[in-house]
Amino acid sequence: MSDDLDYNLFWQQLQHQHGALYDVAQTNCYVICVPCTAVWAGLPLTVAVPKPIIESHILKPSPYFHGTFHSSARGKEHIEISIEDGHVVVQSPAGLDGKAALTAANVKFTAAQSVEPFKAKIMSEELFYNAQYKQFRVLVLQDTLSPVEVAAFRQQNGLGSSASSADKSKRMSRVHEFINSGGARDPLIVRKTPAAHAEFLEAFPENASAIASATNAIQAFNRGYVLVKGYLEHASRKVEMLCEQFYADLLDGNQLFSSSRDDSKVQDAIRLAAESFILDGIHTKLFSALCAIDEEADLQLHHRLAALGPLLRPDHLGIKPQFMCDLPDALKELSRLDTLRTPTEKLWCLKDTTQKIANGVAEHFAAKGRSASEAVVTADELIPLLARAIAFSAPMHWQANVEYIQHFQFTGASVPDLNFAMVSCLAAHSFLQSPPLLKMTAGLKATSPEMPRLSRGASVTAVRDVSELWSNSEPAGSGSPASGRRADLAGSSARGPGRSLSSLSRANSTHPAVALPEDALSDLLGSSSISSSSSSSSNYSSSSNSGSSSYRTYASPNAGVAALQRRSTLPTIRPPDVISTPPIARPSPSLSMRRPATNVLQSSPGDGGPDLGDFLSDTSVSSSYSSLGR
Amino acid sequence: MGDSLTFKIVLLGEGCVGKTSLVLRYCENRFVDKHISTLQASFLTKRLNIGGKRVNLNIWDTAGQERFHALGPIYYRDSNGAILVYDITDEDSFQKVKNWVKELKKMLGNDIALVIAGNKSDLEKHRTVSAEAAEQYAASVGARHFYTSAKLSKGIEELFLDLSKRMITEADKRGGTSTVGRKTAIVVDDDVAPKAQSGGCC
Question: Which UniProt keywords apply (chain B) (predicted)?
Fold first, then answer.
C-alpha cells in the first residue's frame, strides 16, 4: 500500500462527515475511488470536502453493462466509467467535471486530448468487507476524477486567504515535507540522520528554549550519569524520561506542534526527532559504557564468528545452491552497525541488511538468467543468508548493539518490519550457535571452494588460537574429557593457562587448510552442553519435545562466553559494576581480556544520575531479548 | 487514528507445503509495479477493513526446515494468530502441523487464534490426508480448517477473513487491544516526572 488512508483527507471526510454516503456505498458494494494523499497536500484533515466531490468518486455499477460504472454525483450519472489495465477510465476528456467546466477554468484542449478519455492510475486497492462480510472495492487513485472541482476547492481552502494562515500553512507544510520526504508511509520509519532531525527541530525558532533545555540535560547526563552493569533498565527509563521531557517541552513552546496533537503522524515525527536528538547527544557516553559492559562477551563473540565465517559452507547453513551468492552490499551494510549513533539508525541498518540480502539474491538470479519469481527470499533463505552475513562480518560490538537497540529505542520499537528485522538477526545469530550447526562444521577445512572467502574475518590461525585459549582457560583439575584433546590441538599444550587474548590479534594472517577435530571446534564455538544463565537464553531456547518433532535446546549466543568466563582464571566480576567509558575501537594488537578498569564512577551532585538506592531497589531488569516489541 | 487494530500472524508449517506462496498470493498488490522479487517474502503486511474496523495484519513467515525448528519461539512470541499450513498430498506435513499446535498450545495457551490450511487443494487426486481427519483434528483443537490453493488463489481470502474476525473478537474481549502476552515491568519511581501523552502505534 503506497498511500495511507488514515491520513487521507478525502477518506477521513467520507468516514466522518459523509457517513451516510459511506454506509450506502458499503451496503451496496459500490466502488469507492480515493484520490491519493498527495492530491490533498497542504490541506488539514479537518477541512470539509464538498459533497459533490465525494459523490463523484463513489461509483455505482451500470444496470446495463457489466464492468461499467457511473458516478453517484448528480448531473454526472451519464458519464461512463470503467476499470481497465490499472486505471479508472472516464469516457470524457475532462474527467467528471465535463469540458465546460474546464473551459470555464481556462483549460484548453488540444485536438488529440479532446478525444482521449480521462484516466486516473490506480495506485493500490485495499480489501474491504461490509457488516455482512461482503467485499467491496476501495481504489486509491493517483489523481482525482474531478480535477477542476478539486483545484477550486484547494484554492478556496488553506492555501492562502490571509497572511497568517498562509504562514501557518507554509510552516505546517514544512512539517509534512519532513515527514513525507522519507518516502515511507509510517512516520516512525522515516529515514533521517540525527543531523537531519536536529535541523528539522532547529528550523522552528520557537523550539530554541526546548532545545536549550535538552542540550543542558544531555550535558548533565554525559557529565554525571553512571551506567551500572545489570541496571540497564534504570538507564533506559532515565533516557526515556529525557526524550519525553524534550517532546513535552517542544509541544509547550511550539504552537504549531501543539495544535496538531490530533495528528498522530506529526506527533510521531516530533517524538522521533526528539528521541534522535537526545540519543545522538548521549551516544558516546552510553554506547561506550555498553561496549565496556559487554567487552569480554563481544570480543569472544567476534573472534568466534571471525573464525567460523571462512569455514562455513552453504550446506552447513542450509543455503540452497541456487541462493548461494556473494552479498557484498549486505555485508557492507551490516559493517556500518558500529558506526551509527542512534538505536533507530541501527535498527534501520539491520532492516537494510535483510533487504540487501533480498536484493542481492534477486540480482544473482537475474545474472544467471533465471526467472525473477524464483528469487523470493523466504524465511528458509533469509535465516541462513543472514547467519552467513553475520559470521562473515564478525561484528565487534554485537551484544552492545543489541542492548543499545533494545533498551534505548522508544519510538520505533513497535514498527513491525523493523521488529521483524531485529528478530531475524537474533534468530540468525542464535542459529550460528546451534549445536547441529556446530556439529556439522566440526572437522571441516577452511578452504571451501563453494564458499568464497571474504577479506574480513579471521583465518584458521585464529581458530587455532581461540581453541588454545579455550583449552588453556580450563581451570586446573577440571578434567573434562575434552580438555585433553583440546590441549593437544595444534600443538598448544605447551602454553600456559594465563595466556591472554592478545594472540587473537594475529587473526589476519592466513593459513592453509586445517582440519579440526569435531569436539575441538564445537568447544571453540560454544558448547551445546552449557546451560547458560545469560539473560539472552530464555527466548532463544525451545526445550519442549512434543510428538515426533526433535525440538532442540540451543545454547544462547553467550553460552560459550559464559563458559569461558567460568573457566577463566580471571577474577569474577561482582555486581554492581560501574562501567567506565573507554573509546569504541577495534581491538588493538595489545588487547587483553581485562575486565573493565573501574568498579565505581562518581556521580556528580545534582546531575540527575541514579543513586545507589535506585540501583539496589531496581529489580525489574528484564531479559535482554524480552524487550523486543515493547 | 480511527478504529484500528494491528495483529501479528505467524505462518508455520513444514518446508515445501507452500506457505510462502499462500501468503504472497494474499498480499500481492497487482497495482504496484515493483516486482515481488525485490521484496522479502518473510515479512508481509496486509490491510483489511472489516465492518468498519481497520485491521493491519503483520504476517511473519517462519522457516520450514527442521534445522530451524528451535527458532520458532522467537518468531511466534506475542502472536495474535497462527496459520498452520500442510500439504494435502503429504501426510508428514500434517503431522508437523499437529506438533506445532501442541507447541503453540503449550507456550501460548489459548491466547492465539489458530487456523489450519490444507494447501495444494488443486491436487485433490493425490490427496493423502483425509478431509475428515483434518477437519476433526482442527475442531478438536479449536481451530478452523480451510482448503487453500495458492496456485488457483482459492480459499485464501476466506482463511484470512475468518482469522481476522476471530482475532478482532479476542481483541474486543481484551478491551480493544491487539496486544497479547507482553511482559510489562511496573516500576514505581517517585522521581519520575509525569510523562507526556504517549502516542505511536500499537
Answer: GTP-binding, Lipoprotein, Membrane, Nucleotide-binding, Prenylation, Protein transport, Transport
